[in-house]
Amino acid sequence: MAKTIQAIRGMNDCLPTESAKWQQVEAVIRQVVASYGYQEIRTPIVESTDLFKRSIGEVTDIVEKEMYTFADRNGDSLTLRPEGTASAVRAGNEHGLIYNQQQRLWYMGPMFRHERPQKGRYRQFHQFGVETYGLESADIDAEVILLSARLWKLFGIEDAVTLQINSLGSNEARQNYKQALVTYLMAHQSQLDEDSLRRLESNPLRVLDSKNPQVQALVKDAPSLFDYLDDDSKAHFDLLCQLLDDAGIRYEINPRLVRGLDYYNRTVFEWVTDSLGAQGTVCAGGRYDGLVEQLGGKASPGVGFALGLERLVLLLDTLQKIDQDMPAADIYVTALGDDTRAFASKVAESLRDTDKQWRVMLHCGGGNLKKQLKRADKAGASVALLIGSEEMANQQVTIKPLRGNGEQSTVACNELAEALFSVL
Ligand code: ATP
Ligand code: MG
């Protein structure tokens, strides 16, 4: 036998039982973004490597060690997108969507990072995200947070996630803070790991999001960025807090929250849960007012977030907030005897015309009643329609309920739809 080929480590198949859950989640997301007037943007999965280096930052986990980068046949360096914001800004600049305009956009799709695969962390994973452009005041920061909060509410998990927010202030404020942070870290150099020592040189703020527990403990007592905020950023943050208060959104101010990407300024936030173990951040985002210009466009403010769909599905699964079994069919149409196939197909087609919500599966391949009913059961159908030569001759169909204890009944074809409405 030939050797089987397996999927790439950290890149998962989504089989029918899983994909049914994903479809439920995606449907809620599409409905929510539409209800806020956001429009979808789809960008390629592959971009120039420079796009991510220039936006996410050279000295970040993603760019330093997680990107899938390869040479195209002509030698260009390309990268499988590790996140969506850089691509959205690139596309927005390229097609004139951003300058002097306001945009509320969303996207959903696969992202790629070479990380150690574990629960909630994969090499191909999926994000849903929103990106807004041209809006400076904190009301839009509040809006994207409200949008995410509405998702939790619709999924019934609002009690399982908490919102952490912080402000990174202006560039100048961060520069001033950097001094204080470096002084502190220099005084505790012996407790820093190799990565952090390197970052202390190249990009000290990155030490704050080290995942090493010893470094995290040290960072707890470091000076707080929050104390270095400029007045405008402080006022911006105050307005955000007030808007969240008014909307009844609970939050914690976490002065250590810096996020793992360089492009953020002012607002940063994360929705975290303790129901998923180590991979507790379900959704993260913030404001990135410098990014559009940094990527060659005319300066324009930006705010957005990205939500990890695998983590959301895991959370919904863990909390039993999602249907586990999504039957393939509601109605299973049998065809008993070879001469009934065309008639059975016609019945199935007419039911699909009658109600677009009905999932109608037609038996293919013949076989006796027992075999066909077994298939109907496997498909999860609520009713089977029995169609034999007698039914065909009389233009009738026998309805056999498969769940519960309803009675079998035979009805004329033109009364079938009505009869099914009362059964399903
Ligand atoms: P983490 O700290 O968990 O590595 P991150 O800060 O790298 O997350 P972001 O770049 O902000 O994550 O991405 C936003 C969201 O995408 C995360 O909050 C998470 O839900 C999800 N996510 C990020 N990386 C992965 C991954 N490798 N596998 C699955 N989901 C991921
Ligand atoms: Mg990460």
From TrEMBL:
Q: What is its EC number?
A: 6.1.1.21
Q: Where in the cell is it found?
A: Cytoplasm
Domain Aminoacyl-transfer RNA synthetases class-II family profile span(s) in chain numbering: 22-327
One Pfam family recorded for the sequence:
tRNA-synt_His
| Keywords in alphabetical order | Aminoacyl-tRNA synthetase, ATP-binding, Cytoplasm, Ligase, Nucleotide-binding, Protein biosynthesis
Q: Which GO molecular-function terms appear in the entry?
A: histidine-tRNA ligase activity
**Predominant cellular place of this UniProt entry's protein:** cytoplasm
Q: Which residues cross the membrane?
A: none
* Family, per entry: Belongs to the class-II aminoacyl-tRNA synthetase family.
The UniProt subunit note reads as follows: Homodimer.
Q: What is this protein called?
A: Histidine--tRNA ligase
What organism is recorded for this protein?
Answer: Alteromonas gilva
